[in-house]
Amino acid sequence: MSKRTDSNGYTMMFAVIMVFVVGSLLAFLASSLKPAIKENERIEKQQNILYAMGVNENDASNANFVSTKVAGAEFKKYIKKQLVLEGNKISESQDAYLIDVKKQQANAKDGKVRKLPLFVGEKEGKTFYVAPIRGKGLWDAIWGYVSMDENMVVQGAYFDHKGETPGLGANIKQRYFMDDFIGEHLMTEDGVFKGITVKKGNNDAVNEDKTDYEVDAIAGATITGDGVSAMIKKDLSLYVPYFKNLKK
Question: Which pTM was predicted?
Fold first, then answer.
């Protein structure tokens, strides 16, 4: 007598076998692809840091990273020091760019000392200090890198997001928005940290005033803009003691 293949038992057994086979295949693929994924993340972080200090392949209007083929070499060329600020302790680390900012923010909430990466770069005889920042947009995480001089005047910025609305909040990674931050002051002449507010109707649409601590908002992206303002003020304020010590 032939075996029935339309019984409930057969269907359940077939489903269990398929789940096992597919699960095993996905686990294998995830394991085998993990080194490549990590390498891509490493290169992307290097590209982000370089972009913030003006090492990029921008054209007249678009934001473009340096090629993945040269990112590692360019990173070594321009980044002279990778620092880790940990309370009153400052140390050097060749892997500071791999520090997980999200994890460090969580550590700080748990009362642990947060590790703050800071990248010291040199280009055309000028020193740049690049710091990572991370916050919350409308739908999910937003993050970026801000390049500053010794007076905490912004020299460049790169922003990105996980799931902001296309054409609205997602435009924080458009060049026209990121370029607005160049030249903006983060501190007053008296050393008071002010940050930068992304503000609608700030009466400076072309951002000529670089000491008003504001840039013009993206239309229709108020919450995302508020998230950018918040992560700049919250994360970059942590670096103020370092910059004040530079002047001593």
Answer: 0.85
